[in-house]
Design a protein that fits this description.
The complex is a heterodimer of chains A (about 500) and B (about 230).
Chain A lengths: L3 H49 L1 E3 L4 E3 L3 H8 L5 E7 L4 E4 L20 E6 L5 E9 L2 E2 L11 E8 L1 H36 L1 H12 L19 H48 L7 H27 L8 E4 H18 L3 E6 L3 E4 L1 H18 L5 E9 L2 E9 L31 H12 L2 E6 L4 E9 L2 H6 L1 H4 L16
Parallel strand pairs in A: 1-7, 10-12
Antiparallel strand pairs in A: 1-2, 3-4, 3-8, 5-6, 6-8, 9-11, 12-13, 13-15, 14-15
Chain B lengths: L1 E5 L3 H13 L3 E5 L2 H10 L4 E4 L8 H10 L5 E6 L4 H9 L4 E4 L4 H15 L6 E4 L2 E4 L4 E4 L2 E3 L3 H12 L7 H8 L10 H14 L7 E4 L3 E4 L10
Parallel strand pairs in B: 1-2, 1-3, 3-4, 4-5
Antiparallel strand pairs in B: 6-7, 7-8, 8-9, 10-11
Helix pairs in contact in B: 2-3, 6-8
Classes of the chains: A alpha+beta (about 500), B alpha/beta (about 230).
Chain lengths: ~500, ~230
């Protein structure tokens, strides 16, 4: 499993170790370079002094080395050596510190850019050599222009330098070890402390289950970087809570809707068994009615599920929407008149490519609701209009018991203003089924109040053929999936 | 015993009423909360079988209103709502029992019987007055050890008098608890039923158990027992 902390620890440790080792290495090598350069400058100064104090005379060469200067080259135990040659290789001088027979390696750089290299001293110790060629000063003006080129090599014991460099190396390594240990100890702790809010967020999120979806993160308590995550989680939990609530409500409602006919069925059967002599012949009719009611519930639920899963077959054809609305209303006009409802139709003839069966099913349900729920003497207005590229069907009816807060629940499955059954006539599935059908057709249905106590359902869809093509994937589905049994039924 | 069923499912209403009538209860029915509340507050029922999800006024509201008005009638909630929270809510609202749909008819009848018994402070299913023994579960009557055959109505009357044994029971009370509101107040149906009952339980032992208090009502008691006014 990927762990941010482990990854960060690994990467940070790698980076810090690299920086430490690189830094200390650079420091060591820099210091070593500086020390060696300083050492070379000292040798160079000695070599320059020798070259300055060397004179060419008519007889040969004269050296004006002071005793103090030569003290370093005098004794056998001295740490400095020099040897001077003519360009031909004839030795003309050597320090007293040089054992007889031993020679220094000869290299000639320029006076201002001498050759520098490591050597092994005649006494076997490590040394640093510097060599260059130069022309000595002449004491006789007659020798001007005839100066001989001399080669000088000066060597110094470098053991002290090496010791210093070793000490520096040991110090650097020690510091590196110490810093690496400190890094290994500090970084995981710093990361643990730094990532604690993330851990807490994770733990709190892990504690949330289906029963505690109401939990929300307090964004003010979260670090700035985690606030967007907290906000998204809050949003997600909100949606999940709504979804769970809806499913719970649906399950409870479904159970409730099935329990009542089951109770009816069971009590009728038990009565018939308990008192067979007084068995009511109408029980059979009642049993059939209950079976039909339960069948309707199952059919509607299946249609809903199919619709929600996009498995509803939609057969699109050119439909005269106005005529369809008139035909549908025809079936409810008598009932509306019985209830003293004042109904009016305002139809603008419009043709539209849609599924007439599904549209009729939606209209049937809307008409049934309007006739069933409009208070006696109330008003129903049905209108069909063309708005740009859309056909808009509105069904408005006066209402007395619906509130603004009921609107979002209208399309919930099994929702009824009054939770009680209406003799099994209304299951509370009609509007959710209507919305599912509308969606399958590529239409939309919304509900709103018009401010004058009228509940207005607005059903609208594109007139163009493009709207048909959107649902083309469903056209080829078998007609067995079509909810034909729902049409003209009260849902 | 008189029972009110408040249930909006017409089929269940009919079936329950039929089952309870066949079990010798006087039964009235109401189809919505308002009607149920009105009936429960205007008639002296021994038990109200109350659905929760009702049109107009839900069952819990009916129950709360009944209790608010001081009615102590026993209430059996009969509903499809089955969660523990629903049951707790119903019982805390003042219900005496709770039964979830779908239910076994025998269980409902047993609960109705137990609640009716409790309405008169009886915990035992067997009632006895002198040598008269009534088994309310089997609905069987014996006098001096001999079985007494009674019609359903006579049994209802005897059981009601037995629940009220030692107390004067008025004609109106008998009408209210034994007949489901279909009795003409001017008829002598109660006197006639009492008369028939007397004859039947007097066959095995002539010693009278049902005594008339002129202008007041009837008492079921041994002759030697001093009676109190209900």
């Amino acid at each position: 499993m990927i762990s941010i902390r482990r990854q960060l620890t690994r990467k940070l440790l790698g980076a810090v170790l690299l920086i430490l080792i690189g830094g200390l290495g650079a420091l060591y090598f820099g210091a070593r370079e500086v020390a060696t350069d300083q050492f070379d400058r000292t040798i160079h100064a000695k070599a320059l002094a020798i070259s300055t104090l060397t004179f060419q005379t008519a007889e040969g060469f004269r050296f004006e080395f002071t005793d103090r200067f030569m003290r370093g080259f005098d004794e056998h135990k001295s740490r400095d050596y020099f040897q001077l040659w003519e360009a031909s290789g004839r030795e003309i001088a050597r320090s007293e510190s040089m054992p007889g027979g031993a020679n220094l390696p000869r290299r000639a750089g320029k006076i201002d850019h001498p050759a520098e290299w490591n050597v092994t001293l005649p006494n076997g110790r490590p040394g640093r050599a510097l060599g260059f060629a130069f022309k000595p000063k002449v004491t006789d003006p007659a020798l001007h222009g005839r100066e001989k080129e001399l080669h000088l090599v000066v060597v110094s014991d470098r053991e002290d330098l090496d010791e210093t460099l070793w000490e520096l190396l040991a110090l650097s390594a020690g510091w590196a070890l110490l810093l690496v240990s400190a890094t290994l100890w500090v970084i995981p702790r710093v990361l643990r402390s730094g990532l604690q809010p993330l851990d807490e967020l994770g733990e709190r999120a892990a504690r949330i289950d289906a029963d505690s979806l109401g939990t929300r993160f307090t964004l003010e308590d979260l670090p700035e970087e985690l606030r967007p995550i907290g906000q998204r989680l809050n949003d997600l939990f909100g949606r999940l809570e709504q979804s769970f609530d809806r499913e719970r409500r649906f399950s409870a409602n479904l159970a409730h809707e099935l329990r009542t006919p089951l109770a009816e069925l069971r009590s009728m059967a038990e009565c018939a068994l308990k008192w067979p002599e007084s068995r009511d012949p109408s029980v059979d009719q009642e049993t059939l009615a209950i079976a039909q009611q339960m069948e309707r519930i199952v059919t509607h639920i299946l249609a809903l599920v199919r619709g929600e899963e996009g498995q509803l077959a939609v057969t699109t054809e050119l439909t005269a929407v106005g005529q369809l609305v008139r035909d549908t209303w025809e079936g409810f006009a008598a009932r509306a008149a019985e209830r003293g409802l004042n109904a009016s139709l305002q139809i603008e003839e419009t043709e539209c490519a849609t599924d007439p069966a599904l549209l009729r099913s939606i209209l049937t349900n809307l008409c049934d609701n309007a006739v069933g729920y409009t208070p006696a003497g109330g008003e129903i207005v049905i209108a069909v209009r063309r708005r740009s590229d859309r056909v808009v069907i509105t069904m408005a009816n006066s209402t007395s018991d619906l509130e603004e807060e009921d609107l979002p629940k209208l399309f919930d499955r099994f929702w009824r203003k009054e939770a009680a059954r209406s003799g099994g006539l209304h299951l509370g599935l009609g509007l959710s089924l209507s919305r599912t059908f509308a969606k399958a057709m590529g239409w939309e249905i919304v509900a709103a109040f018009d401010g004058q106590n009228h509940l207005v359902f607005t059903l609208s869809g594109l007139i163009t053929v493009a709207a048909v093509n959107d649902t083309a994937g469903m056209l080829a589905r078998p007609s067995a999936d079509r909810p034909d049994t729902l049409i003209d039924q009260t849902i | 015993m008189r029972v009110l069923i408040v249930e909006d499912s017409a089929r269940l209403q009919r079936t329950l009423a039929s089952a309870l009538r066949k079990s010798n209860y006087a039964v009235d029915v109401a189809g919505d909360g308002d009607e149920g509340l009105w009936m429960a507050t205007t008639h002296p029922y021994d038990l109200v079988v109350l659905d929760i999800m009702l049109p107009k006024r839900d069952g819990l509201s009916v129950l709360a209103e009944l209790r608010r008005r001081g009615h102590s009638v026993h209430v059996l909630l009969l509903t499809a709502r089955d969660t523990i929270a629903d049951r707790v809510q119903g019982l805390r609202a003042g219900a005496d029992d709770y039964l979830v749909k779908p239910f076994a008819l025998d269980e409902l009848l047993a609960r109705v019987e137990a609640l009716c018994r409790r309405a008169y402070g009886d915990k035992q299913p067997d009632l006895s007055v002198g040598d008269l023994e009534i088994d309310t579960t089997a609905r069987a009557v014996r006098r001096a050890g001999k079985a007494v055959e009674l019609t359903a109505r006579e049994y209802q009357l005897l059981e009601y008098l037995a629940h009220r044994r030692g107390h004067i029971v008025t004609r109106t009370e008998i009408e209210n608890h034994i007949y489901d509101g279909a009795v003409d107040p001017m008829s002598n149906v109660v006197d006639s039923a009492v008369c028939n009952l007397r004859k039947k339980i007097g066959a095995a032992n002539a010693s009278p158990l049902i005594h008339t208090r002129r202008g007041q009502g009837y008492i079921l008691a041994e002759a030697s027992v001093k009676t109190a006014t209900a």
